[in-house]
Amino acid sequence: MISQLPKWVEFGAFILALVAGYVNAIGLLGFEHQSVSHLSGTATLLGAGVYQGSLQNASHLVGVLLSFLAGASIAGFLLHGFTLKLGRHYDTALVIEALLLLVALAFLYNEQFVGHFFASAACGLQ
Predict the structure, then answer these.
(1) Contact predicate 90/75, CB 8 Å
(2) Which of 18, 23, 49, 107 is the most interior residue, by most CB within 10 Å?
(3) What kind and span of H or E run contains 42?
(4) What does the buried/exposed string (b/e) look like for 69-86 if buried means 16 or more CB atoms within 10 Å of the residue's CB?
(5) Positive or negative torsion for Cα 73, 77, 80, 84
């Protein structure tokens, strides 16, 4: 067992946590002030939206949930393991995450809600 992580792993974990916080701010400042990374709140809003009969909000929230699931599925396909091992496709996952975030940025900059889906997929991938 490793008693102390190498510095590059600690630095990488810090950067990933920082990026996740930035991405989550996208959702908190946008539609319904919901998180795009912690989906229990999104699922709660979905239930409330269905109860209130707001089909438009409910469909948007379903899109956020499914986008997160799609990102997590891509990560599972690329990394397929529970432990950190060199040689896995971590670089591919990070490149896909960066591309998803750039697409989210472009959509949200133009005030198009679809950007939330790409941001949520990036969080699921991470």
Answers:
(1) no
(2) 23
(3) helix 39-52
(4) ebbeebbeeebeeeeeee
(5) negative
CA distance 60 to 58: 5
CA distance 55 to 59: 6
Q: Look up residue 13 and give its two tokens.
A: 């974990």
Give residue-wise pLDDT tens across range 100-114. Answer: 989 988 998 898 889
- The alpha-carbon radius of gyration of the chain (Å, integer) is 16
Q: How far apart are CA 125 and CA 90, in angstroms?
A: 11
- Cα separations (Å) of 17 from 11, 20, 56, 58? 10, 5, 31, 29
Residue pair 104/122 in contact by the 8 Å Cβ criterion: yes
CA distances from 94 to 2, 35, 55, 83 (A): 25, 21, 34, 17
Reference 126, options 15, 31, 33; nearest CA is: 15
Report pLDDT digits (tens) over 8-62: 777 877 887 787 777 777 666 665 566 666 677 778 878 888 888 878 888 888 9
